[in-house]
Amino acid sequence: MIGVITGFAIIMVVIAVGYVLGRTKIIPPGEARLMLNRVAFYAATPALLFTVVSTSPPQALFSPVIAVSLLATLLTGAVFLAVARLLPGREQHSAADTAMGAAAASYVNSNNIGLPVSMYVLGSAAYIPPILVIQMVLLTPLLLAVLGASGAGAGGTTRAVLGAVRTALLSPIVVASAAGLVVCLTSMTVPEPVMAPLEILGGASIPMILMSFGASLNTTSVLDSPKDRSRVLLATGLKTLVMPLLAWLLALALSLEGQERYAAIILAALPTAQNVYNYAATFRKGTIVARDTVMLTTFASLPVMLLIAALSGR
């Protein structure tokens, strides 16, 4: 269980640093804090994604565990969309807000918690890059398209949606992920003078996102927004409990056994990715739901993963 504990320690310590820096005004409140998110979105995270995806083994992309992860993500997001329509106060939330809630309920933290968990709990890091590819190349463009269309203020017209899709597909994180996928599948070798700077730049991504996240906790408290509270609780419950359950059912349906079934369930139990908060903060849509769900699932997923490990005899 040391991998699970290590992954959570990484997140909590860096969030705490951001909180202290915000508390002491070293990270200024308001708009200045969002600069960390913008630098991460446009520079550091693309570099990180390219280096991780491009160096992953191609055969890992076609594991049945990845099929379970994709299906569990889609089903969990769909459940959120369906239930959110029934919650009170839905007229106060835009389509972009709802999309962010669905992402918060289904996007797994595959990097700064997923990597150590995969390495130390599952015994291999090969499961993580394919999940990154799925989220960044397939799912993120759809999310960014909704955010972009809403931000354009064009009311969801065909032109606005097509423009938002084009913008999403050309966004730095999607382009970097797609480029990494090409390098991975073609077994190209990236020259060291190119890869080394990208690795250094990519290393700044997660700390910047987490510090901005921690600094944001100085302005509001978790579950402090009445109009967002039900959606935060819904997204947290879906991510923490329902998504691992769906992964277990899907693993049974696909006849996964042993290590593959265990991996599929553990990966589904990972907390919400900080990138969801980064997108929300960058586009200023669904920020509270994303932030609060990230925080709550980060705490709640640890006992869930420990329970899964115990039930699996690990």
Automatic annotation (TrEMBL):
Provide this UniProt record's keywords sorted from A to Z. Cell membrane, Membrane, Transmembrane, Transmembrane helix, Transport
The cellular location(s) given in this protein's UniProt record come to:
Cell membrane
Q: Could you name the Gene Ontology cellular component terms for this entry?
A: plasma membrane
GO biological process terms, semicolon-separated: transmembrane transport
Chief subcellular location: membrane
Asked if the record carries the keyword Membrane, the reply is: yes
Membrane topology, from the record: Multi-pass membrane protein
Membrane-spanning intervals of the chain: 6-22, 34-53, 65-87, 99-121, 127-147, 168-188, 200-220, 232-256, 262-281, 293-312
Protein's UniProt keywords contain 4Fe-4S = no
Q: Which family does it belong to?
A: Belongs to the auxin efflux carrier (TC 2.A.69) family.
Name of the molecule in the record: Membrane transport protein
The scientific name of the source species is Corynebacterium oculi
Tell me the classification of the organism that encodes this protein.
Bacteria, Bacillati, Actinomycetota, Actinomycetes, Mycobacteriales
